[in-house]
Design goal:
The chain has 6 helices and no strands. The chain is mainly alpha-helical. It has one domain. It is extended, with a radius of gyration of 20 Å.
Length: about 150
């Protein structure tokens, strides 16, 4: 298990380096494949481990994602832990008798997870929506009290 963990740490590091240095020159419409997220998703999808493995892989992958990007340190770790547990929960609900790991489940789950990760990683968008919603709610009640007659 220790050798496997070292290999996984090395792969996460190698993919993070490859993603941020080499693949950035081959971007397609400004997008680069997120190799660290792909490896994390594959590990969680295929491994029959316990919850501790999901937390360890989330921590390793999240640290490398945060170190090689512009986001806050720890945000990717938290998001990957959530996605790891959600993936295992959805996988337990979508059991198939013939194939234990069907591609029909893998691709939609991967696309939804990656879209959610990229959306939630944009914290300024989320905070902007929450902040604006709070201010709009306050102005709504002020306007209603002053101008709307019952």
């Amino acid at each position: 298990m220790f050798k496997k963990l070292l290999v996984i740490i090395f792969l996460f590091y190698f993919f993070a380096l490859l993603q941020s240095s080499f693949l950035s020159h081959f971007s397609l419409f400004g997008a680069v494949p997120n190799l660290v997220f792909i490896l994390f998703f594959l590990l969680v999808f295929f491994e029959e481990g316990n919850n501790y493995q999901i937390i360890i892989w989330s921590a390793i992958a999240g640290i490398f994602l945060d170190l090689f990007s512009y986001t806050y340190l720890g945000l990717s770790v938290v998001l990957l832990i959530i996605f790891g547990f959600l993936l295992k929960k959805v996988q337990s609900l979508l059991k198939d008798t013939e194939d234990k790991y069907p591609f029909v489940y893998f691709l939609p789950l991967f696309i939804i997870s990656l879209l959610a990760y990229n959306f939630l990683l944009r914290t300024e968008i989320i905070f902007s929506v929450v902040y604006s919603s709070v201010i709009a709610s306050v102005f709504f009640y002020i306007y209603r009290i002053i101008f709307v007659k019952k």
